[in-house]
Design a protein that fits this description.
5-stranded mixed sheet, 5 helices, 51% helix, 202 residues, Heat Shock Protein 90
């Protein structure tokens, strides 16, 4: 069974790479013919990211899964997420505000946390009326990363059955310091009046 799962994971990885090739070809045609296919490129990138999350879920839920902890400058990570998400949100009239003043490097899995936050920003943008906010703050419990929106909020807190939420919760738990483990929380406590996604890294 493990061999079969590895083969399937390899196929997903190859498909993801082909999507990135397709996105590059579309970008080249945009430049050649002076047309805007940004939404098509974004859809391809979103599909590739979904496959990436599926692969991340596979690796994180395998027995003995480990994460790649590296010192991470939060301001840089937040800036990269803003760069990746800004154009798409702006095309829908949504402003993405970033407030990540944490100055010290924090130990975390930079790639997976970045992907998780990018996904949270993307999801918030689907329901926001006009703004989404990504923030980071140090607390007594650890580093708190938040994504807020000004949408209608959750009618009910969704069960963590989707791939993205399962990966996020597992990734949070794998971040540990001593006896403390990370945590994921969804609520309607957004300062903007809508939904809030919170990731705690101890």
């Amino acid at each position: 069974m493990q061999r079969l799962l590895d083969v399937l994971a390899s196929g997903i990885h190859d498909t993801k790479n082909q999507l990135f090739v397709a996105e590059s070809l579309i970008a080249a045609r945009e430049a050649e013919h002076h047309i805007d296919l940004g939404e098509a490129r974004y859809a391809i990138e979103a599909a590739a990211q979904r496959l990436s999350r599926t692969l991340a879920a596979y690796h994180l839920f395998r027995h003995g899964a480990h994460i790649a902890i590296v010192p991470t400058i939060l301001a840089d990570l937040c800036a990269e997420i803003r760069l990746a998400q800004h154009a798409h949100l702006a095309s829908r009239g949504i402003t993405l505000n970033v407030d990540c003043p944490v100055l010290d490097a924090w130990l975390l899995d930079r790639d997976l946390v970045g992907d998780m936050l990018g996904n949270a920003v993307q999801n918030a943008g689907r329901f926001a009326r006009s703004q989404v906010r990504l923030s980071a703050v140090e607390t007594d419990a650890g580093l708190l990363l938040r994504v807020d929106d000004d949408g209608p909020g959750f009618r009910s807190i969704p069960p963590r059955s989707g791939t993205g939420l399962m990966v996020a919760e597992r990734l949070a738990q794998l971040h540990a310091r001593g006896e403390r483990h990370g945590a994921l929380r969804l609520s309607n406590d957004s300062a903007l009046g809508g939904a809030r996604f919170e990731l705690l890294i101890p």
